[in-house]
Amino acid sequence: MKAMQYMGYGDPSKIRLADVPTPKPAPDQLLVKVAASSVNPIDWKLHNGSLRFLVPVRFPSIPGMDLAGEVAEVGEKATRFRPGDRVMACLSSRRFGSAAEFAAVDERLAALVPKTMNDHEAAALPLAGQTALKALRDLGGLKEDDRVLIVGASGGVGHYAVQIAKAFGANVSAVCSGANMSWVRELGADETIDYTRTTEFGPWASFDLIFDTVVSEPFGRYQGLQKPDGIYVSTLPTIGLMGRSVLFRLLSKKRIKTVMLKSNGEDLAFLSALAEQGRLRSVIDTVFPLSQLDLAHRRSQSGHARGKIVIDIHGTPSSPT
């Protein structure tokens, strides 16, 4: 099968097209014929060496965690799916490899593709959508009428977070650039804030939950925005945040948490149901063919993608939105 491989730690210039054996599914796995994958920052961070002491990579290595496609073969202990089913999944950070024509997928990680989504839209959803869901529902304890601030609302995780928060009945303030404010409002944001024009994101003590998908500013700028029992959730653990988290537990009702995704099919099925209800959609920034995975990774590294970057395993590229 055709696959893209990093040949060693480094930037996307290390990516090469290769012919590799088609994987054999284990008893509890599915063999999926991949139609589309998507790019997440974790994909190139695993391969540029910045995470090598936490998650070492063996080379040559096929990157990619998200996928959507058709079940081609079912392991003898897999019972939830059958050949021909359209599925989507997020592979683990230690058993990735979706930038290829076929991938072996643990059955517990997969869910049926919602009927409202094509392959590109479904491939965009798993990692980013589950990250947003875990941050808001599980760590943030999101409930109806909560006031939520989402920082980075036009990004891969952020644009799902806006929609999920609205599906839970929250009041959403979304931070993004002025160029993205209109379509972020279309996703359901009650208020949009242009970070290029203001550093004021709201009144003192105004938010029950702050979800920071960017983590480019010191926590201090958000602390005053938290209600006395407000929760701040970050997508990136830092030493400073961990220290503040300990102090808050001793001295305050405020909380600091970091989302660490452990993918599962149940949460993905929950997101699929929201999509079928018309309450969740994927915004696609760009579609690259598999052979241009290096350009897709560079697009992700630019930090300017609107929504998700998708890899069409057999198709042709589209322009950025």
Shape, please? globular
Instruction: Please tell me the CATH architecture of the largest domain by its name.
Output: Alpha-Beta Complex
Structural class: alpha/beta
Low-pLDDT windows of residues: none
Number of domains: 2
Helix content range: 25-40%
Short description:
By secondary structure, the chain is of the alpha/beta class.
What would you say this structure looks like, in words?
With 321 residues, the protein is of the alpha/beta class. The chain has two domains: 155 residues, Medium-chain alcohol dehydrogenases, catalytic domain (Quinone Oxidoreductase, Chain A, domain 1), CATH 3.90.180; 131 residues, Rossmann fold, CATH 3.40.50.720. Strand 8, helix 4 and strand 9 form a beta-alpha-beta unit. The model has no long low-confidence stretch (mean pLDDT 94).
Question: Layout of SSEs?
Answer:
Layout: E1 2-6, E2 15-19, E3 29-39, H1 41-47, E4 66-74, E5 86-90, E6 102-106, E7 110-112, H2 119-124, H3 126-139, E8 147-151, H4 156-167, E9 171-176, H5 181-186, E10 191-194, E11 207-212, H6 220-223, E12 226-234, H7 239-251, E13 255-258, H8 265-276, E14 284-289, H9 293-302, E15 308-312
Parallel strand pairs: 8-9, 8-11, 9-10, 11-12, 12-13, 14-15
Antiparallel strand pairs: 1-2, 3-4, 3-6, 3-15, 4-5, 5-7
Helix pairs in contact: 3-4
Salient structural properties:
321 residues; Rossmann fold; alpha/beta; 15 strands; six-stranded parallel β-sheet; 9 helices; 2 domains; Quinone Oxidoreductase, Chain A, domain 1; seven-stranded mixed β-sheet; globular
